[in-house]
Amino acid sequence: MQLLGKRWTGLILYQLLSGPQRFSEIESALPISGRLLSERLKDLEKEGLVNRQVYPDVPVRVEYSLTEKGKALEPVIKEIQLWADQWIEFDNKA
Amino acid sequence: MQLLGKRWTGLILYQLLSGPQRFSEIESALPISGRLLSERLKDLEKEGLVNRQVYPDVPVRVEYSLTEKGKALEPVIKEIQLWADQWIEFDNKA
What we know:
Two copies of one chain form a homodimer.
Chain A: H1 2-5, H2 9-16, E1 21-22, H3 23-29, H4 34-46, E2 50-55, E3 61-66, H5 68-71, H6 74-93
């Protein structure tokens, strides 16, 4: 469960809510280094939240997608975002 | 935001959803050491999620309660719990 609090995990999950994506697509969508993104994706895979699919194209194609367990986090991610929009925004202006 | 992922934070917030409580009440409700509970409460106070109220009784009485910002996390905590009930439970039996 601590994984959910790790920096970038929520944003990576949120990014994958819009469907399977390649590493480069996720990397370009988020202000995160390739090394850290790769580390977080491995964590998420180990926790059974993300699935890594390798396609034998030439060159080989690798796609990441949410598992059922990962997709089930959608309400959590959305509530965190609603809360952050209201309270984190408020803190910056205060 | 990483604070939400830290071990015990969610359970402390969940515990305080039922209203203001003294340190000893929180400590007895959760399998957590006094030192760690005190550390987490300080973190939560710094983030503006928890309020620490000192009453000038004899002996002095200290109560912890959720701020508005803390209470606004209720939907997040409830969704995490729903998810954990379904998926974390499932993992243990598999």
